Amino acid sequence: MNFRNLNLLLVVSLFIFNQCILYDISRSASDSLGSLSTSLQSISKSFVSVSESISDSFKSDKKEKIQYQKDIQSFTEFSIKEKLTSKEYIKGINRIARKHNLVDWEKDKDTYYAIGKGIKNSKISTKEFYAFLESLSNKEVQKLIEEGYISN
User: Fold this and answer.
1) What is the distance between the alpha carbons of residues 82 and 111, in angstroms, rounded to a whole number?
2) So where are the chain's domains?
């Protein structure tokens, strides 16, 4: 074999070797990008799942809140029409709050708003309503009950 053929063989060998290395590097980079793409898709699906879960939770909480208000409103209306004592009324409100997993209904604004709506639905006179409001010492509670009463 002459020197020229040997050089040519060496150049061809180096070229083939470089092509193999480039192919391996390219394939490795492609595999890495594919793996990265799969990971990003997985992360994206996780974010969508978490987002949907949070959205469902808010919808569920809102439905629960609306149902709680309806229950308080109906019970208040019933209590006025049936002339329940304040002790019986408080006991009923406690029962409804527990049913809706509400521990401290006395500090829940929705409770008082719903009470106002229930009072309005009971058809007591405006004069009786405002006399009742005046009997309450807590101004914030007065305001919330009045807002519920006016909202109907």
Assistant:
1) 20
2) 3-151
